Amino acid sequence: MLALDRVGKTYPNGVHALERFSADIRPGEIVAIIGGSGCGKSTLLRAIAGLDRASAGTVTLDEEAITSPHAKIGIIFQEPRLLPWLSVADNIGFGLSDLPANVRGGKVLRALARVGLSDKAKAWPRELSGGQAQRVAIARALVPQPEVLLLDEPFSALDAFTRRDLQDHLLDLWNDTRPTLILVTHDVDEAVVLADRVLVMRPRPGRLFEEIKINLARPRDRNSPHFDNFKRRVLTALDRSLDRNVPDADPKSTTGEAMWW
Amino acid sequence: MAMTVELPALEQTDARTDAMMPPASSARLARYARPALGLLLPVGLALVWEVVVWLGFSNGRLVPPPTRIFATIMEMTKSGELSRHVMATLMRVGTGFGLGVVAGTLLGAISGYWDLARRLLDPTVQALRAIPSLAWVPLFILWLGIFETSKVALIAAGVFFPVYLGVMGAILSVDRKIVEVGRTFRLSGPAMIRRILLPAVLPAYVVALRVGLGLGWMFVVAAELMGASEGLGYLLLDGQQLGKPAQILAAIVIFAILGKATDWLIEVATAPLLRWQDAFGRQGGGS
């Protein structure tokens, strides 16, 4: 289990980016973190990844404090960040350098097939489209089989068509080993289609505002009235999070059960 | 399982090469036509001058026509004189270039990688760089004597600065986002250098080497003009003092050939390492 306990971050220049953020995230759960700009959602993700240290509170994975990048935690950034001097196959195998070459080769080959890029194994990253490059990045992060996969607005640079395609693809891949997914996004549609739980944050300083459980069976129909209903609830929460007069909700009391269930 | 994965890939590449056949031949034509275009002007001028001298409009004494320069080169080759001078110059450039590259790479890498070293070292190096390198000549001669050592030192000094600057600048400009990828995969310090930093700085390093080599050729002339008994620079000076313009031009032509050839060697040697680059000059490489 991933436990965030009163995580806070103040940058050296005095910016108060994140304050007392607490959440417990079960193994295999998909959590979307959503909020306006400057609400500290990327700061939070970087603290979980161990890339930046939180200035207050703790991040623990299975009782182990996370202070630096961890083998069980993978991350996918907004940009694919592929290494341009490595072929697509070598990029995917980048995190497997401890394994013997034949084992690594087999894993890479399976991953390539799994993301539908078997014919691009020897291509350079520059020869890929944006969607293909991001699929390689997903494969690279998933190949070492992390227990937790962090995604920092992974599809925001893609066109709407590719984005939908990759969202479905991500769920499909998630189903293989069911890692915990923590997804930072500003796309309400994306949050509702992917997540078991949506955490709405409010800015200055960033903190948890509301928690909405999405009790919809997968695969989710983006056009169903239930889907619309959840989208509206997230949107309302987002609107209210920007209103300074509304107090922070206590996340423990918000169950957000579906009324039509 | 693996077979089913690979088969469609193979079929696809086959289909692609088939489809590529007609444009490939026209691309080959373009590949030969483009350098030929660059040769048009110098070859044309040389031909015009040859004809002008042949027709007797000029005696070609101060500006010898190409055939006379060529004859001088052949003559010196036959007597073995040319290879002696070329070897002397190549040895000086080679040694000086090697020393300059080693020193520039080491110090550049240290200043690029280590903040404290940069603050300590860089201002001094930059101040030294501001001095025209030829100003060192008298001092080098006093310190190191008139023979090989002072010449090699001058060349090494000329090569050092562009290599130092290139390496340091390249390391400083490595994309933080790419370094972060290395961090998320928990690379150790040496692994980070080997797997992220080295490949990332390689393109800039190759450019620095080529600039350094160009300066090496420049400084070997200066070094040999200040007093030498052999070398291409000596041929220049000798040609001036004895009034043999054909010899001077022959030396210049050989300088040009050697400079271009050594530059080309660096380019060819590093090309396989830089195939991944997505550069403006590399057309037709993408999809």
What does this structure look like?
The complex is a heterodimer of chains A (261) and B (287). Chain A has helices spanning 41-49, 88-92, 101-114, 130-142, 160-177, 188-194, 225-241; strands spanning 2-10, 16-25, 30-35, 56-61, 64-65, 73-76, 148-152, 180-185, 197-202, 207-213. By secondary structure, chain A is α/β, with parallel strands linked by helices. Residues 251-261 of chain A have low confidence and may be disordered. Chain B is mostly helical and 287 residues long. In chain B, α3 (81-113) packs parallel to α6 (148-172). The interface between A and B is medium-sized, with 31 and 28 residues.
Features:
heterodimer; A: 261 residues; alpha/beta; six-stranded mixed beta sheet; four-stranded antiparallel beta sheet; 7 helices; 23% strand; globular; B: 287 residues; mainly alpha; 10 helices; 80% helix
Topology, element by element:
The complex is a heterodimer of chains A (261) and B (287).
Chain A: E1 2-10, E2 16-25, E3 30-35, H1 41-49, E4 56-61, E5 64-65, E6 73-76, H2 88-92, H3 101-114, H4 130-142, E7 148-152, H5 160-177, E8 180-185, H6 188-194, E9 197-202, E10 207-213, H7 225-241
Parallel strand pairs in A: 3-8, 3-9, 6-7, 7-8
Antiparallel strand pairs in A: 1-2, 1-4, 4-5, 9-10
Helix pairs in contact in A: 6-7
Chain B: H1 2-54, H2 66-78, H3 81-113, H4 115-130, H5 137-144, H6 148-172, H7 176-184, H8 189-225, H9 232-241, H10 245-270
Helix pairs in contact in B: 2-10, 3-4, 3-6, 3-8, 3-9, 5-6, 6-8, 7-8, 8-9, 8-10, 9-10
Number of helical regions of chain A:
7
Helical/strand content category of chain B: mainly alpha
User: In angstroms, what is the radius of gyration of chain B?
Assistant: 25 Å
Number of helix segments of chain B? 10
Q: Mean pLDDT of chain B, nearest integer? A: 83
Instruction: Report low-confidence residues of chain B grouped into runs of 5 or more.
Output: 1-21, 283-287
Q: What is the share of helical residues of chain A?
A: 25-40%
